[in-house]
Design goal:
Number of strands: 9
Radius of gyration: 16 Å
Structural class: alpha+beta
Order of helices and strands: EHEEEEHEEEE
Distance between the termini: 24 Å
Largest sheet: 5 strands, mixed
Shape: globular
């Protein structure tokens, strides 16, 4: 099974620049009349999808898109070799750090949000990663 990751953004060009600078992803191609950017460089492709603020995400909800910081039960974790370097790079690109860096048995973690309010974490494995707690 293949996983495709889609992230709604309010400004496609700004999002491409952010994910290139913050995480080292690269623009592969633009799709659907230049409303989707395919970003490669991770284990799964990341599709940045232009969706206007105030638009409806579904006919089954009254909720409207907004690009202020929001909570969602799904977020992306990006595994990095050096957490401190990765956090500095992400912040320089426009990410917001949402608290102090944390250290666990399995690794170190930083919780951030992109310029569109989407949460993401940077993770640096220590020793055997999640296998330390399995």
């Amino acid at each position: 099974m293949e996983i495709v990751v889609n992230v709604d953004v309010g400004n496609l060009d700004e999002a491409v620049r952010f994910y290139e600078r913050a995480l080292g992803l690269r623009l592969s191609r633009r799709l659907f009349a230049d409303t989707v950017a395919e970003m490669l460089g991770a284990t799964s492709p990341l599709y940045l999808m232009l969706k206007q603020a105030g638009s409806s995400p579904s006919a089954h909800t009254a909720q409207l898109r907004d690009y202020h910081r929001h909570w969602t039960p799904v977020h992306l974790d990006f595994v990095v070799a050096d957490l401190d370097v990765a956090v500095a790079r992400a912040r320089d690109a426009g990410a917001a750090l949402e608290g102090p860096l944390s250290t666990f048995t399995w690794g170190r973690q930083a919780c951030l949000s992109d310029p569109f309010g989407n949460g993401l974490c940077l993770v640096q494995w220590l020793s055997r990663g999640y296998d330390e707690v399995a």
